[in-house]
């Protein structure tokens, strides 16, 4: 999704709503990873699994907490 094509940018919740619709997924089926606090908070409000990226070790730990299978 390119913000200039949809005329919206994060952390606007409409961006995440658009992404969910485009992907045909429910919020709980998505994992959003971003380094921006406000972006992560906005996605979480919609029920999207969200992780704030602050480093690789933290990312692995946060994914394990969510018990998400990758691959």
TrEMBL record:
User: NCBIfam families from the entry?
Assistant: HAD-SF-IA-v3
Record Gene3D superfamilies:
HAD superfamily/HAD-like
What is the name of this protein? HAD family phosphatase
Short name of one Pfam family for this protein? Answer: Hydrolase
Q: Which residues form a coiled coil?
A: none
């Amino acid at each position: 999704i390119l913000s200039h094509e949809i005329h919206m940018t994060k952390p606007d919740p409409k961006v995440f709503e658009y992404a969910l619709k485009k992907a045909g997924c429910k919020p709980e089926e998505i994992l959003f990873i971003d380094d921006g606090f406000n972006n992560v908070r906005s996605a979480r409000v919609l029920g999207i699994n969200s992780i704030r990226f602050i480093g690789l070790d933290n990312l692995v730990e946060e994914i394990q907490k969510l018990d998400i299978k990758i691959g």
